[in-house]
Design goal:
The chain is an alpha+beta fold. It is 33% helix and 20% strand. The chain folds into 2 domains: 83 residues, Phosphorylase Kinase, domain 1 (2-Layer Sandwich); 174 residues, Transferase(Phosphotransferase) domain 1 (Transferase(Phosphotransferase), domain 1). Helix 3 packs antiparallel against helix 5, helix 5 packs across helix 6 and helix 6 runs antiparallel to helix 7.
Length: 265
Amino acid sequence: MIGLSVGKYRIVEEIGRGAMGLVFKAQDEYLGRMVALKILAEKLADDPDMLRRFEVEGASASALSHPNICTVFECGNWKGRPYFAMELLAGQPLDSLMKAGPVAEPQLIEIGIGVARGLEVAHAIGVVHRDIKPANLFLTDAGQVKILDFGLAKQKLASVKLGDDAATMAMVGTRPGMLVGTLAYMSPEQIRCEPLDGRTDLYALGVTLFELATKKLPLGGGELPGAFGRVAGKLMARELTARYQSATEAREALQACRGMAARAG
């Protein structure tokens, strides 16, 4: 596909591929900027479930504008295959970062704060990601974390009153009793196929931070030391009421950890 034009985007090179499709580096022929162009695999164009998930990813992310969420510029359709153009990021996903060894606590805190900030915006318009994990978080060369892959996102009623000009989207619901997500990062209520809210993303964030810190999953109730460990533990609380009740609460707790570390230093 190198050299082909998909809509107004001319494909330069392939930069990734996954279960749903291919990702290319492409140039916007009108604006001149380089983008990451994600297009559904041809073999999946007739699969209604994969088609729906791909469209949800583009619609969800395009409705969210925040420095900690990968920006989607445009969605379209090319020869029966949906695509979307998003910002081209330089850096690495957190699952790749983890291969070099456990992530130091100061960086973990900054990652946690960035993810929580992105989730604040998503949850405020009722979008629950449902698949927060290292592979879906990207650390740019500038040190900024970005939330990726809203393919399993689900919209609930917004948690704040929105203005008339607020972003809207068509979200696709899942069937009752349908388990979606990545098992190791799923909250207990997600595994039980119960109704979900933003607190399920906070649980997954806790598991992610634990894994980044130890290179292990918190199987059997593992714990981290100190104030940061207490925050991670509360994020991973099995009972909903024992967790932080919002991404804002989680962000503030992580910022308090950063403050304590700065004073101790």
